[in-house]
Amino acid sequence: IADVQDIIDHEMLSHDEIVNRIHEVAKQIDKDYAGKTPIVICVLKGAVATYYELTQAMTIPMKMDFMSLSSYGSGFESTGKITVRQDLSYDVAGEDVLIVEDIVDSGNTLHWLVGELNRRGAKSVEIFSLLEKPARHTAKVELKYKGFVIPDEFVLGFGLDYDEEYRNLDSIAVLKPEVYKGANS
Ligand code: PRP
Ligand code: MN
Ligand code: MG
């Protein structure tokens, strides 16, 4: 596997820009959920870094839970079919649920998850997604909280993978187009 600098075209968002924005969102969430104890769901694996920064910055009572979902496998295009790799530990019936995601691309993952949490009887379901890529939306998703709206480029880092690697990059970078075009998937 290539060194990260060999596959990156340029940095899109620095670590500080990302973290500062997440902290602003955390303040808003603290206000909106005052008096409540939401279950804050991390959509693994991509949301892991966003979730860590958000929850560390939140000050209201909350419960943490984790759900591992896959719509992409190792390919570049959403397959449209969501696979549950690992389910939640809590029953969300009657609970206020806040979903934390790294990116809305086609919208398939969140569209499915919001429907599923409503089927399970959640009292309320809201979403924070760090990134939104409007050019690719096919499924409708209401984002109450968002970090950045980005153009239609393949991004990696801060939890987002390219072929399951580079999630540990601490900023968000654009993949070189030749790497993207060279891949056959
Ligand atoms: C990625 C990303 C979002 C989803 C967004 O997850 O983390 O969860 O795709 O795409 P969509 O809006 O088209 O559904 P992926 O399925 O790659 O799993 P991962 O989080 O483990 O990387
Ligand atoms: Mn994901
Ligand atoms: Mg992925």
Question: Mind explaining what this structure looks like?
Answer:
It is a single chain. The protein has a single domain (16-151), classed as 3-Layer(aba) Sandwich (Rossmann fold), CATH 3.40.50.2020. The longest helix has 18 residues, at 15-32. The protein is α/β, with parallel strands linked by helices and 185 residues long. The protein is built from five helices and nine strands; from the N terminus they run H-E-H-E-H-E-E-E-H-E-E-E-E-H. Strand 5, helix 4 and strand 6 (124-132) form a beta-alpha-beta unit. Bound molecules: 1-O-pyrophosphono-5-O-phosphono-alpha-D-ribofuranose, manganese (II) ion and magnesium ion. Manganese (II) ion is lined by residues 43, 46.
| Main sheet overview | 6 strands, mixed
CATH architecture group name? 3-Layer(aba) Sandwich
- The rounded Rg comes to 16 Å
Overall geometry: globular
Residue fraction in strands: 25-35%
Strand order of the largest sheet: 4-3-2-5-6-7
CATH topological fold name: Rossmann fold
Q: Could you state the order of secondary-structure elements as H and E?
A: HEHEHEEEHEEEEH
Our count of domains comes out at: 1
Element layout with pairings:
Elements: H1 4-7, E1 8-13, H2 15-32, E2 39-44, H3 48-57, E3 63-70, E4 83-86, E5 96-104, H4 108-119, E6 124-132, E7 145-149, E8 155-156, E9 172-175, H5 177-182
Parallel strand pairs: 2-3, 2-5, 5-6, 6-7
Antiparallel strand pairs: 1-9, 3-4, 8-9
Helix pairs in contact: 2-3
The structure holds 1-O-pyrophosphono-5-O-phosphono-alpha-D-ribofuranose, manganese (II) ion (MN) and magnesium ion.
GO molecular function, one term: hypoxanthine phosphoribosyltransferase activity
Pfam families: Pribosyltran
Domain Phosphoribosyltransferase: 13-162
